[in-house]
Each structure stands twice: as structure tokens, then as C-alpha cells.
Amino acid sequence: MRQNMIAGNWKMNGTSDSVKTLIEGVVSGLSADQKCDVVVGAPYVYIPAVVAATASSVVKVAAQDVSEQDKGAFTGEVSAEMLKDVGCEYVIIGHSERRSLYGETDQDSAQKYMAAQRHGLTPIFCIGELLEERENGTTEAVCARQLDAVIEAAGIASLANAVIAYEPVWAIGTGKVASPAQAQEVHAFIRNKLAQLDTAIAEKVQILYGGSMNPGNVADLIAQPDIDGGLIGGASLNAEDFLALCQAAG
Ligand code: PEP
């Protein structure tokens, strides 16, 4: 039986003070018998503070990106080894904002995914279609292509140590959530695609939904058989909302 996960993506938001307030609110509000995995994706500079604040809780810390390189003359980059060194356990890879704003290709994302795994980080690997791709009927082809880049580079077995996040780009930060049926259809497609290569991996891998998930719509989404939680942007910046999502997910 797969466990749900609620993963926050704080993006480029916060200050030392607001991050402290947010993470302390999350840690103190989580129930002692929290059943779902809880992850927060902090900006790089706040990761050590968030790791310290979550040390005696179930909350795990993610970075929002990572270099595909291990070390060396790559000004401005942060390696997977560094993230592991400061206590990160997860890293968000291939978020649509990295793909659309910074030109990250499927192959770039696959290289970052492999760098993360080389250093013991669990990738939260994001895939999802643009609005025009949904409208022209290529949602499944786009998700398959994005997933295939990782499977070809790292192998199907690598997904034993990864999380997939299906994030329709038209639903991210727009308030326009996919209906539970729309999301379930794509999640089932992803799981069936993986099952053609390895049924055990397909059964085990957590597939999160991302895109305007909030306390009002979470229950119907995670009630779907192939939705194992959420990757949350906006609602993860408010401790009360984030805690409501964690509670709904178990
Ligand atoms: C995201 O950026 O991954 C995301 C899902 O954002 P939001 O929840 O704000 O739509």
C-alpha cells in the first residue's frame, strides 16, 4: 500500500523571519501520528535553517533544483553532494518553471535526476502538459516523452527511489485545478506505462498531483486510486493550509 506525500514548493519566497515562522508553524501543527510523508521545498539559502527546525519532526527537506554536475567550475550552481551535506533528502527536478523560464530540456532534467540519485537524494520528478497540449490531445504523449527521458537515461529501476509529480502546467498557480477525473486519467496512464516495464515499480512509486491543490479540493483528488498526494505551491506558504493538506492526506 502506497503512503501519501504532501510536498510543499515554496519557490522563491520568504525571508529568514518568515521561513522560521512558516516551518515552526508546520512542525508544531503536525499531529504526532502523521501518516503521510511531509516534505518542504525551501530556497537554497534557507535549507540549513529549515533542516535544523525540522530535525526532531517527520518533515523532510527538499531543494527546488540541483546541478547536473558533481563539482567544479560551474559558477552559481549547487551540487547534489552539497544538498545532501546540509541535510536535504529530496530535490524537485524538472518543474515546469525550470523548463519554461530557464529552458531546461527533458535531457537536462534527466541529467539532474541522475546527479541527485548519485548522491542519495530522492528526485521529485515533475512532468505535465501545457494548455495547448491538453487542447490538441497530446497530454499523454507529452508526459510519456518527459518520463521516457529519465527512463532511458537512468533506467526503470531508478524509479524505486523517486517520486513523480504530475503537474498540468495550466493548473499551476492559476487557481484552475484539474478535475479529480482528469488527474486520475493521467495518473493511471503514467502508472500503466511504468507497469509495462516493471509492475513492482509501478505499484510502489508515489505519483503526486500538482496544480492549485488546496484544502478545499484535496480530498476529492487524493481519493483517486492513482493519486498519492500533492506537490503544493501557493498553499504551502501558509502553515494552516499546508497542515490541512497533510491532515487530509493522512
Ligand atoms: C507548483 O508550482 O508545483 C504548484 C503546484 O503550484 P500551485 O500549487 O501554486 O499551483
Structure report:
- With 250 residues, the protein is of the alpha/beta class.
- The protein has a single domain, classed as TIM Barrel (Alpha-Beta Barrel).
- 42% of the residues lie in helices and 14% in strands.
- The protein contains 11 helices and 8 strands.
- Strands 1-2-3-4-5-6-7-8 form an 8-stranded parallel beta barrel, surrounded by 5 helices.
- The longest helix has 16 residues.
- The model has no long low-confidence stretch (mean pLDDT 97).
- Bound molecules: phosphoenolpyruvate.
Summarize the structure.
The protein is globular, with a radius of gyration of 17 Å. The protein has an eight-stranded parallel beta barrel with strand order 1-2-3-4-5-6-7-8, surrounded by five helices. The chain has helices at 16-29, 47-53, 80-85, 96-102, 106-118, 131-135, 139-154, 180-195, 199-204, 218-222, 239-248; strands spanning 5-9, 37-41, 60-63, 90-93, 122-127, 163-166, 207-210, 229-232.
Keywords:
250 residues; alpha/beta; TIM Barrel; 8-stranded parallel beta barrel; 8 strands; globular; binds phosphoenolpyruvate
How many helical elements? 11
Average pLDDT works out at: 97
How many individual domains?
Answer: 1
The number of E-state strands comes to 8
Strand content: 5-15%
Q: Name the ligand types.
A: phosphoenolpyruvate
Please write out the topology:
Blueprint: E1 5-9, H1 16-29, E2 37-41, H2 47-53, E3 60-63, H3 80-85, E4 90-93, H4 96-102, H5 106-118, E5 122-127, H6 131-135, H7 139-154, E6 163-166, H8 180-195, H9 199-204, E7 207-210, H10 218-222, E8 229-232, H11 239-248
Parallel strand pairs: 1-2, 1-8, 2-3, 3-4, 4-5, 5-6, 6-7, 7-8
Helix pairs in contact: 1-11, 5-7, 7-8
Bound molecules: phosphoenolpyruvate.
